Amino acid sequence: MSQPTLTLWSDSDFFSPYVMSVYVALQEKGLPFTLKTVNLDQGEHLQAGWRGYAATRRVPLLEVDDFALSESSAITEYLDERFAPPEWERLYPHDQQKRALTRQIQAWLRSDLMPIREERPTSVIFAGEKKAPLTEAGRKSAAKLFDTASALLAHGRPNLFGEWCLADTDLALMLNRLVFNGDDVPEQLADYAAFQWQRASVQRYVALSAKRAG
């Protein structure tokens, strides 16, 4: 069977943490894909001519032949089912409970911790920006992140569930919003984020934003 044609749509700055999650997933699967961009600042994603207009009008958007899918967690779960292990690399743990926990972590990172996301945008990571000290709300959000991440990593291993999973990348990115700004982050969590950030698929995405900025 021939491989489908895959196209990933990103923001033109490559700042989106959700695009990054899908990009890493495609890289880990070893799937060839075309990368295209849409300029969010100019509102290109809100124009009816864009492929994602009929979906959620957001990035990431993944096209698989004539099928288009938006929302990063939906895309990565689809990829892990469509290009399933063991033929393709695994994005989610084999164990059912660990797989459910991985999805829980991803959903939490996408729906909570808003003060961190607002006060430490991904431009801190990908463009080297520095932001003002955290507000009280930001400090409370950071404390919640640290408590939860510390509990998840209390086993002392470098990955959440033994072998790497996609939630490792997502959690590392959230922690690095603070690390890259120079905020105080518990050493164990900073080390975990640094280890995850060296993964080849992650570094390929980081290089995209660095090239754009340069």
Automatic annotation (TrEMBL):
Gene Ontology molecular function, alphabetical: glutathione transferase activity; maleylacetoacetate isomerase activity
Superkingdom, natural source: Bacteria
Entry EC number(s): 2.5.1.18
Class of this enzyme: transferase
Keywords of the record: Transferase
Keyword Transferase applies: yes
Single biological process term from Gene Ontology: L-phenylalanine catabolic process
Name of the molecule in the record: Glutathione transferase
Taxonomic lineage from the root: Bacteria, Pseudomonadati, Pseudomonadota, Gammaproteobacteria, Enterobacterales
Underlying gene: yfcF
